[in-house]
Amino acid sequence: MVAIASRYVVVRDLRLHYLEAGEGPPVVLLHGWPTSVQLWRHCLGPIAASRRRVIALDLPGFGRSDKPLACSYSFPFFERVIDGFLDEVGIKRLGMAVHDLGGPLGLFWASKQPDRLIDLALLNTIVFPEPSWAVSLFVAATRIRGLREFISSPAGIAFMFRLGIVDKTRVTRETLRLYQEPWVTKEARHALLKAGHGLHPRGFDRIVAALSGLTCPVRVVYGSRDRILPDIGLTVARLAALMPQIEVTELTNCGHFLQEDCPAEVADLLSEFFGRQS
């Protein structure tokens, strides 16, 4: 059984939490909103077993990492944090797996330094600057009084997970507790909301301009029954048109949080993909 270590590092005066396992070429896993490293808990061991050093990072504002309020949660902010984190843990070249908000953050970081990517996996994420009605509604909800208090509350997070998972039996009390725990204070919930609307559309323009320059192997694994990103099929088709090397797997019985919906299948697919470069 692969040992998984829980660690902390300080980057730009922020205390960041991460999980680490295995040895070999590194892979960094980036979660989205409103999740944490817990989203990757079923994937860490299998990817590490494929002879990769795998790290799941709690982004600032999430999980057990610091949740500052005096910051923008913008593309440049996260770019600086990711750069600093990689320096602190001694990573030069790496693979990435990204989900939801972690997708644009990872792709924005890679847009200026694509040669540092060994391989890339994209899971139910946002890539293009034209938001769907669902994304526009979500961003608005993070700003509107009443709605913003609900979506950042334990009840709101439970609602989000039930919406984003097809197999409702997987939305257990224990699973919900893992994701609700970081938001026990008003300040933490405020940081979560700021992280939900901090990305400027121009950042997505930079991402799209850089996509065709990514020459590393790219794997897309997505749940097609996504009620949070209902345009995910269109996103995947547009990605395939821009990156001829892309390899796509559609999981027809999975929703947005596919790592929770189909944990074993997602872990097997990612470990097989990342194992090719070990």
Structural account:
The structure is a single chain. With 278 residues, this protein is α/β, with parallel strands linked by helices. The chain has helices at residues 41-49, 75-88, 102-111, 133-141, 147-151, 154-164, 173-180, 186-196, 201-211, 232-242, 258-261, 263-275, and strands spanning 5-11, 14-21, 26-30, 53-57, 94-100, 117-125, 218-223, 246-251. It has a single domain (5-275), classed as Rossmann fold (3-Layer(aba) Sandwich). Strand 5, helix 3 (102-111) and strand 6 form a beta-alpha-beta unit. Helix 3 (102-111) packs across helix 9 (201-211). The model has no long low-confidence stretch (mean pLDDT 96).
What would a concise description of this structure say?
The protein is an alpha/beta fold and 278 residues long. 42% of the residues lie in helices and 19% in strands.
Count the helices. How many? 12
Overall pLDDT metric: 96
Task: Assign the CATH class.
Answer: Alpha Beta
- Cα radius of gyration in angstroms: 17 Å
Just name the CATH architecture.
3-Layer(aba) Sandwich
Q: What is the CATH T-level topology? A: Rossmann fold
Global geometry: globular
Q: Numbering strands along the chain, what is their spatial order in the largest sheet?
A: 1-2-4-3-5-6-7-8
Please report which band the strand proportion falls in: under 5%, 5-15%, 15-25%, 25-35%, 35-45% or over 45%. Answer: 15-25%
> Roughly what percent helix?
40-55%
The first-to-last residue Cα distance is: 19 Å
Class of secondary structure makeup:
alpha/beta
- The CATH superfamily is known as Alpha/Beta hydrolase fold, catalytic domain
Question: What is the chain-wise order of helices and strands?
Answer: EEEHEHEHEHHHHHHEHEHH
